[in-house]
Amino acid sequence: MTSPLLDVRDLTVTINRDAGMVTALDKVSFHVNPGEVLGIVGESGAGKSITGAAIIDLLVPPLKRTGGTITLAGERLDTLSPKAMRAVRGGKIGFIFQDPMTSLNPVITIGRQLCDTIEAHLKIGGDRAKKKALEWIERVGLPNPDVQFKRYPHQLSGGMRQRIVIALALCANPALVIADEPTTALDVSVQAHILQLMRDLHRESRTSMMLITHDLGVIAKMADRVAVLYAGRVAEISLVGELFNAPKHPYTRGLIRATPMPSPDGNVRLDQIPGAMPGLGKTPPGCAFNPRCFKAEGDCCVTIPPLTARESAAFSCFHPLEKEVA
Amino acid sequence: MSAQDFLTLTGVSKVYRRGQSLLERLKKTDAGGTKAVSDVSLMIRHGETVGLVGESGCGKSTLARLVSGLMAPTSGEIVFRKDKTGRTPRLQMIFQDPYSSLNGRWTIEDIIAEPIKVHKLRKGRAAIRARVDELLVQVGLSPADAEKYPQEFSGGQRQRICIARALAGEPEFLILDEPTSALDVSVQAQILNLLRDLQKNLHLTSLFITHNLSVVRIMADRIGVMYLGELVEEAPSEELFRRPRHPYTRLLIDAAPDMDTDDRSLHPIAGELPNPAFPPSGCRFHTRCPFAKDVCRSTAPPQKMTDAGGLYRCHFDLDLSNTSTVPALAKMKTA
Question: A45 to chain B, minimum CA–CA distance in Å?
Answer without folding.
Answer: 10
